Task: inverse folding
């Protein structure tokens, strides 16, 4: 552990920037030039083998040849006190893993991915794979003059060194960060540029939702997710996010590399377009329109007078039709003020006549019957007498 003011390989240490499984990074002053650099010291225990040290030299040389505005530049490398070190461009900013994803607009997340995708495509074109794309390796800094945010990708080739130093590749294992590792890395298959694309899609998923695509405290479940399970919907975890983004991420995270985008920039462009897709809202529900049914005259008096005749009784209701109305009450009971007609009829309710009207009707009916009986008797008597 170095302290402020210590000198290492000619660099004057200012302060510790961060540390991890690979080593520590310090802010240091260049021994001759008036500039600050990021000085990474790799853990001694990981790089004791001579072959691994030779690999370190080759990987550092490849990374130093990458000259891209979205890639942290490598200035120098060497060995000091049996420690491997790399001098890199210092980015005065933060890494994406420290940014709260819940406060990050989706547009900013995709803009960051665009910068990283450009860096990866450039590196892939020069035969260099990153192998450990994740938010912690994405640096964010303000541009000069307040012209927006600059995006940098760092630690090219370091993951390959870690694999070689721990000999995990011989056992078909991997050392990339589990939440962002591609299926090929987990199975020990041959890697190409599409492995970095898978990891980049995992990084976008985290920046949009705040969780890994296959988030779990159980490493076996995370591995099973990467190898077997479909990608969970990001829009279901981020309200307001277009579901079109789900399809783009799912393609970039396809289990088979051949099913992914051709390049990382193709993936980033598709994600940017997907943000503008809006799900059409369903049309508003309109009230059902009523169909006018012609009213058929309906006489309550006719029902009372003829209700006892079999031919006038309503038949059995059709299937699914409402039950028939209750039978007419006796005349000496109160009659409801409204009446529900049988199925198929649509008529305004009729007002029932008053009690005095009904009584008069019965009197007239009795008088008529008596008259008929008298006439019948007279006819029978006259017939019997021969008149």
Result:
């Amino acid at each position: 552990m170095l302290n402020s003011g210590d000198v290492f390989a000619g660099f004057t240490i200012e302060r510790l920037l961060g540390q991890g499984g690979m080593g520590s990074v310090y802010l240091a002053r260049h021994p001759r030039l008036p500039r600050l650099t990021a000085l990474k010291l790799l853990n001694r225990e990981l790089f004791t083998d001579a072959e691994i040290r030779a690999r370190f030299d080759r990987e550092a040389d490849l990374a130093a040849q990458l000259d891209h505005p979205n890639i942290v530049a490598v200035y120098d490398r060497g060995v000091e006190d049996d420690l491997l070190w790399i001098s890199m461009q210092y980015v005065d900013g933060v890494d994406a893993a420290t940014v709260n994803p819940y406060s990050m607009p989706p547009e900013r997340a995709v803009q960051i991915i665009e910068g990283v995708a450009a860096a990866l495509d450039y590196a892939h074109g020069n035969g260099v794979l990153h192998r450990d794309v994740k938010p912690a390796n994405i640096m964010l800094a303000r541009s000069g003059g307040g012209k927006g945010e600059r995006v940098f990708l760092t630690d090219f080739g370091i993951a390959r060194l870690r694999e070689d130093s721990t000999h995990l590749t011989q056992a078909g294992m991997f050392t990339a960060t589990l939440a962002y590792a591609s299926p090929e890395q987990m199975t020990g298959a041959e890697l190409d540029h599409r492995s970095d694309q898978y990891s980049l899609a995992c990084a976008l998923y985290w920046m949009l939702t705040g969780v890994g695509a296959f988030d779990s405290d159980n490493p076996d479940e995370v591995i099973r997710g990467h190898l077997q399970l479909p990608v969970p919907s990001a829009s279901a975890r981020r309200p307001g996010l277009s579901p079109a983004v789900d399809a783009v991420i799912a393609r970039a995270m396809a289990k088979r590399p051949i099913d992914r985008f051709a390049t990382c920039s193709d993936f980033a462009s598709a994600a940017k377009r997907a943000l503008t897709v809006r799900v059409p809202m369903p049309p508003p529900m309109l009230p059902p329109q009523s169909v006018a049914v012609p009213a058929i005259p309906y006489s309550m008096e006719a029902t009372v007078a003829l209700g006892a005749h079999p031919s006038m009784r309503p038949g059995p209701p059709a299937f699914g039709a409402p039950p028939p109305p209750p039978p007419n009450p006796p005349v000496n009971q109160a009659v409801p003020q409204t009446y529900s007609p049988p199925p198929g009829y649509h008529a305004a309710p009729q007002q029932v006549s008053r009690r005095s009207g009904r009584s008069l009707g019965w009197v007239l009916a009795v008088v008529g019957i008596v008259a008929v009986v008298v006439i019948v008797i007279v006819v029978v008597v006259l017939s019997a007498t021969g008149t």
Notes: The chain is about 35% helix and 15% strand. The chain has two domains: 1-90, 93-277.
